[in-house]
Write a structure and sequence with these properties.
Elements: H1 2-14, E1 15-18, E2 22-25, H2 26-34, H3 40-43, E3 45-46, H4 54-61, H5 70-80, E4 94-97, E5 103-108, E6 114-118, E7 123-128, E8 133-138, E9 141-142, E10 145-146, E11 149-154, E12 160-164, E13 168-172, E14 178-180, E15 197-199, E16 205-209, E17 230-236, E18 241-249, E19 252-259, E20 265-272, E21 279-287, E22 290-299, E23 306-311, E24 317-321, E25 326-330, E26 339-342, E27 348-353, E28 359-364, E29 370-374, H6 383-386
Antiparallel strand pairs: 1-2, 2-3, 4-29, 5-6, 6-7, 7-8, 9-10, 11-12, 12-13, 13-14, 15-16, 16-17, 17-18, 19-20, 20-21, 21-22, 23-24, 24-25, 25-26, 27-28, 28-29
Helix pairs in contact: 4-5
This protein binds 2-acetamido-2-deoxy-beta-D-glucopyranose (6 copies).
């Protein structure tokens, strides 16, 4: 109740019903005029159901000074501080389970089962979404060395592919047995520990590798939080080879593939968690497992920590922020976020859609939980749904 009243208050004070020109955000108009810009009615235009968060606006707009980019910067602040418009509101976050140390890597297999990881317990758990009950599925280990599973993806045969920080890349069948795909990359270097992964529509698998060599124990384990040795791999399913496609990042984390209208993989996109400018990097995919043209595709607000990401079927990219209680949404061309979604939990790790559905599942580390909301559209079709 208190929340709703507060939201109403912001809507009323924030909006300026100008004659004929549609709605304008009042604080933006003041700032715009103070900067001496022309066409402030256009710069500060918002939609009827937009709610701009005042504290975010103040923080964002205070740094804007007169210059060529002032207009774009004002527009950027409006976008960045806009609450995402969903069919429902925050009271509709449904908690499925909590206390799963540490919830991440949510995935549906083709047969409709749901799995995620409890990383700090070194486990992959199966979650009964109806009964809201999580139970141990597999705790991978090799020669006594415990796995540290972080990311999961499905393939067409109901197998689960696991990005693991101490064991690398694993392929897990539904009877609970698994195999390690490789221990070395195409340069014959020992694999780095893995974190997130995603299949492109050709069936090649893209993997972030922010940690040091696999087969490390908790005592000699290293990661790229301070030294930028984080890498990205592509598992070439035809050659059965793990290819290091790029390196030199401060904890690459969260990975997604953008396809063209024909379903050909077009761009590799991944976050960099420990770079304070919070970039999302992109590379053009020029042939299977081959990339070129490194670019900054977008940025979260500075000091954010991108962790997990997925596209919806309207081409918008949903990115979780491990350092706050916001999920940020980017349009198909990246840049600055177009809106943000406030969640009733922080340390947000990942997102995943139920196939053919607007159900969006979100994992987090505050309560070590799994939550569900209704998104504005269905998720982008995954590789395992297409084949
Ligand atoms: C939020 O959702 C609840 C339940 O669906 C509804 O009762 C309430 O009016 C909504 N609040 C706002 C501000 O839309
Ligand atoms: C959850 O599932 C496990 C394994 O099937 C079962 O042992 C346990 O009793 C269930 N817990 C609840 C609360 O249903
Ligand atoms: C870490 O320690 C284990 C066990 O002593 C050893 O097998 C492994 O090679 C070590 N890894 C690194 C990267 O030093
Ligand atoms: C951090 O990201 C910025 C782009 O936002 C980039 O220019 C810079 O090189 C990055 N630093 C590292 C160490 O990756
Ligand atoms: C991956 O496999 C394909 C065959 O599908 C091959 O044409 C391509 O060159 C391979 N890519 C790399 C980088 O090895
Ligand atoms: C999703 O919808 C497509 C097309 O309607 C259908 O072929 C497919 O079986 C559905 N998948 C699931 C998991 O329901």
């Amino acid at each position: 109740m208190g929340c709703n009243l507060l939201a109403m208050y912001f809507v009323i004070i924030a909006v300026d019903f100008g004659l004929g020109n549609g709605l304008k955000y009042g604080p933006c108009k003041s700032k715009c005029k103070k900067l001496g810009l022309a066409g402030c009615w256009r710069v500060c235009r918002i939609e009827t159901d937009d709610v701009i968060e005042k504290s975010c606006w103040n923080k964002c707009s205070n740094s804007i000074i007169m210059g060529q980019n002032a207009e774009a910067a004002l527009r950027g602040c409006i976008h960045q501080c806009r609450n995402c418009v969903l069919p429902s509101n925050q009271t509709d976050f449904v908690k499925i389970v909590d206390d799963q140390y540490t919830a991440e890597g949510p995935v549906f297999t083709k047969d409709g089962n749901f799995y995620m990881v409890a990383t700090f317990r070194n486990e992959i758990v199966k979650v009964d979404l109806e009964k809201r009950n999580a139970s141990l599925f597999v705790a991978p280990s090799i020669n006594g060395l415990k796995g540290y599973p972080v990311g999961l993806q499905c393939d067409s045969e109901n197998n689960i592919w696991v990005a693991d920080a101490t064991l690398g890349l694993l392929k897990l069948t539904q009877d609970g047995s698994f195999k390690q795909i490789a221990t070395r990359d195409n340069y014959n270097n020992i694999l780095q520990g893995c974190n997130d992964l995603t299949f492109d529509y050709q069936g090649n698998l893209w993997i972030t590798a922010p940690t040091g060599p696999i087969f490390s124990t908790l005592e000699n384990y290293t990661d790229s939080q301070e030294e930028p040795f984080g890498s990205v791999y592509c598992y070439n399913k035809t050659t059965d080879e793990i290819i290091k496609v790029t390196t030199g990042f401060l904890y690459p984390n969260g990975i997604a593939i953008q396809h063209d209208n024909n379903g050909t993989p077009k761009k590799l996109i991944f976050g960099e968690s420990f770079n304070t400018t919070a970039p999302l990097w992109s590379y053009d995919i020029v042939s299977p497992c081959q990339v070129e043209n490194k670019q900054v595709w977008g940025n979260l607000p500075s000091k954010s920590m991108p962790d997990g990401m997925d596209f919806d079927n309207e081409g918008d990219l949903i990115v979780t922020d491990y350092s706050s209680n916001y999920v940020y949404v980017f349009g198909p061309n990246g840049g600055a976020p177009i809106c943000r979604l406030k969640c009733p939990f922080s340390a947000i790790t990942n997102v995943h859609f139920r196939p053919n559905s607007t159900d969006l599942f979100i994992t987090e580390r505050e309560f070590h939980g799994l939550w569900k909301i209704q998104w504005k559209s269905e998720g982008m079709e995954q590789y395992c749904e297409r084949v």
